[in-house]
Amino acid sequence: MRISIDSDRCIGSAQCVVAVPAVFEQDEDGLSTVIAGREDGAGQHLVREAARACPVQAIAIAETDGA
Q1: 32 with 39: CB under 8 angstroms?
Q2: What's the pLDDT score for residue 67?
Q3: CA pair distance 55, 6, nearest whole angstrom
Q4: SS3 letters for 9-61?
Q5: Rounded to 5 degrees, what are φ and ψ at 5?
Q6: How far is CA 2 from CA 10, 11, 28, 53, 56, in A?
Q7: What distance in Å separates the CA atoms of residue 50 and residue 38, rounded to the nearest whole number?
Q8: Per residue of the chain (67 residues), what is the pLDDT tens digit?
Q9: H-helix or E-strand spanning residue 5
Q10: How far apart are the first and last CA of the chain?
Q11: How do beta strands 59-62 and 32-34 pair?
Q12: Which of 9, 28, 34, 43 lies at a CB distance of 3.0 to 4.6 Å from 58, suitable for a disulfide?
């Protein structure tokens, strides 16, 4: 899988950061970002749930080979 966050949609609710702090963090503007090197989800099973819980659907998950 490949995770990305649309920074134009993100409102900084931090639901993803609370759900999966090993993958998501907030930047200096309070918007969520994917931690560098964790774009593959880092084996965290709650990444999909974090994407579903995003109130503005800013998290995208793309399936890749070997996902």
Answers
A1: no
A2: 47
A3: 13
A4: CCCCCCHHHHHCCCCEEECCCCCEEECCCCCCCCCCCCHHHHHHHCCCCCEEE
A5: -125, 130
A6: 18, 21, 23, 17, 19
A7: 14
A8: 999 999 999 999 999 999 999 999 999 999 999 999 999 998 988 999 999 999 999 999 998 876 4
A9: strand 2-5
A10: 5
A11: unpaired
A12: 9
Residues in the chain: 67
Look-up: residue for tokens 């084996």? 43
Amino acid at 41: G
- Provide the pLDDT for residue 24: 98
Residue (of 39, 40, 46) closest to 16 by Cα position: 46
Amino acid at 47: V
Residue the block writes with tokens 């579903």: 52
Q: Which of 14, 56, 51, 15 is nearest to 31 (CA)?
A: 14
